[in-house]
C-alpha cells in the first residue's frame, strides 16, 4: 500500500441557533493530498473554548454511564450492523467509480472496524464489533445494490454546500449511513463527516473518489479515509483533539486509553511523544485511525474508543442497528437478495419551480443500472427524450408531470411524478428607482431577503457604523468560521424596463471592509438573475486588498465615515428585464466585518421622492448621558409635529412616543446603555445615540 503524503485536515463547524443558545457541531475531518493553505486548521478544536466545541459531550457521557459496560463485558459477541448507501455524485468522469471499487471500500471498513486477521486492519487494537452492509433494500423496500449514481457538476463539492448533496439523494439517515463519493472537495479536503447529535438533515459522510477504497481510481490509497470519517460519525474525536490538556480521561478525545497528542501526526514515527502528562508517559498512538498518519500506518481502535462507539449505537444511533431496521434494509441474515435486482426507475431535478422559459435539468437516479431511458415531458421542449439526463425548457405556465421508463436487459420500470414541475409567469418587479438605506431600523424589510444556509453568522442590521446614519447592514466574518459558506442579501425583483431612459442605468452601493490577516480573504460578490433566481451570474466581485477600505486588524472593524467606498455597476444591458433579481453574496474566510449601505438602482436622473430625506432636524438631547428624563432642545422652535421612537442597539423598537406634546422624553422603564432616539417631522429625520445611565 502506498501512503499518500502529508494530510492536513479541514474542520467544519456548524452552529445551530436553538432557543437562543449556540450549539456547535464539530464536523470533522479530512485527509488531503497536498497541504492546504492552513495546515493548522484542524487544530480548530484546540483554538476554541472547549465549552463550545464539546457542547454535545455531556450527552455522550450520559450515554456512556447509562449503557456501559454492557456491550463490552456482558455481551461480547453482540455485533452491530450498519446499513450503508453509497451515492456516487459524478459528472461522467473517472469519479463514476466501479461497483467493485465501492465494494472494496466497504470490505476495508469491515476489516478495520473488525480487526480482521490477515488484513491491514489487524493491528494491536480491538474488534469494535461494528460491521457495515451495503443496503439490499431501499427505503421503498425495493431490491438494490445499495449504490445510487447521479450525473451532476456538483461532483465538484463545496463543503459549505452540504445540503446540495442531500438534495440530490438522501436516504432516511435514521436507517442508512449515507456516504457520498465526489470528484473534488474544495480546499483539497479528502472527506468529512457529521457528528452524532448533528441535525438529521446534515447526517452522513463525504469522501473524494480517489481515496475511496484501494482499487480503481483509489489504487494509491489504503481506504482509511472512510474508516476515520466513520469514526467521527460514530462519535470519536481526533486523538489530538484539544492537544495535551491536563486530564487524559475527561479532556481531549474523552478516551482514557488513547495517549494525549499535542498536534496531528502526519508521519508514522512510532517514537513520537508529544505529550508527557500521561501516566505512564506513552508515545503518541500514531497507528490510531483517529490521528492523521498515512493509511498504511493506521490500524487500530482502542477499547475506550469501542466504548464510545458502542454508546453511540446504544443511544443516539440505536435505530440504525436495530433488528427491525436490518430487516427493512435487507441487512439481516434472513434476507437473500436475488442475483440481479430489477431496474427501479427514479429521477430528480433541483429546479421544480421555475419561471416560464427556464431550462430544467433532469437527472436519472434509477437503481440497479439502467441502460436505456424513455422520458416524457408534457408541457416541455423536448416532450420526449432518450438521454439519461435531459434538459427541458418549459415555456408555458402550468403544473406538469414527468415520466421515466428505465430499462436494462433485465426488464424495465416506470416512474411518473404528477405535478412535478411548476412553471409560473414571472411577476413584474418593483419600479425604479429602488433605494434602500436600512435607516428605518427594520431588517430585513422593503422586500429584501436574507439567505443564511448554515444558520450561523449572517447579514444583520448594524448599529455601530453606517454610510447614511444611523444604520447599515453587516456580516461579522471574524465570527463567521464556516469557511467558504455563503450569505446572501437578496433584493426584491426589479422591473428595469420601468426606467425612463436606461442608458445610465446603474447599481450603486457603498461598502466598508477590513482584513484581519493577509492570508484570509473574505469575498463580496454581486450577482444578477434574469430567470427568477434559477441561475445567477456575477456582475461585481472583490476580495482581499481590493475589497479592503480600512487597515488590516484582528479586532472588529468599525469603519469611520472616510472608510466607505462606492461601487457603481452599469446595468444597461438589462434595461428590458421586467423581473431582474440582484443579490449580494458574502463568502467568508474568517476575515473581518463587511458592511453595506445605500443600495440604489436608478437611471441617474434625480427623482422627487416622498420618502423622508435624511436631513437633520435642529434638535438636541440634553443631558447625554441621561438618567430618567432627557430634554428635546429645539422642539418648541419647530412648528410641525415631531414623532419620536426609541430603539435599542440592535435596532429593536423599545418605545414609540408618538407625537411629542412636551419637549421631554421619559426614560423610566427603558434599559440602561445605548439607546437610539429617532425623530421625524415633515420629511426630516434626526437620530441620536443616547446613553442611559443605570
Ligand atoms: Ca485520550
Ligand atoms: Ca505521552
Ligand atoms: Ca452564514
Ligand atoms: Ca444607512
Ligand atoms: Zn478527522
TrEMBL record:
GO biological process per UniProt: carbohydrate metabolic process; proteolysis
Domain spans labelled PKD: 343-423
CDD domains listed in its UniProt record: PKD (cd00146), ZnMc_pappalysin_like (cd04275)
Pfam families xrefs: Peptidase_M43, PKD
Gene Ontology MF: a single term: metal ion binding
Keywords assigned: Disulfide bond, Hydrolase, Membrane, Metal-binding, Metalloprotease, Plasmid, Protease, Signal, Transmembrane, Transmembrane helix, Zinc
Transmembrane segments: 9-27
Family that this chain belongs to: Belongs to the peptidase M43B family.
Listed name of the protein: PKD domain containing protein
Organism listed in the record: Haliscomenobacter hydrossis (strain ATCC 27775 / DSM 1100 / LMG 10767 / O)
Lineage: Bacteria, Pseudomonadati, Bacteroidota, Saprospiria, Saprospirales
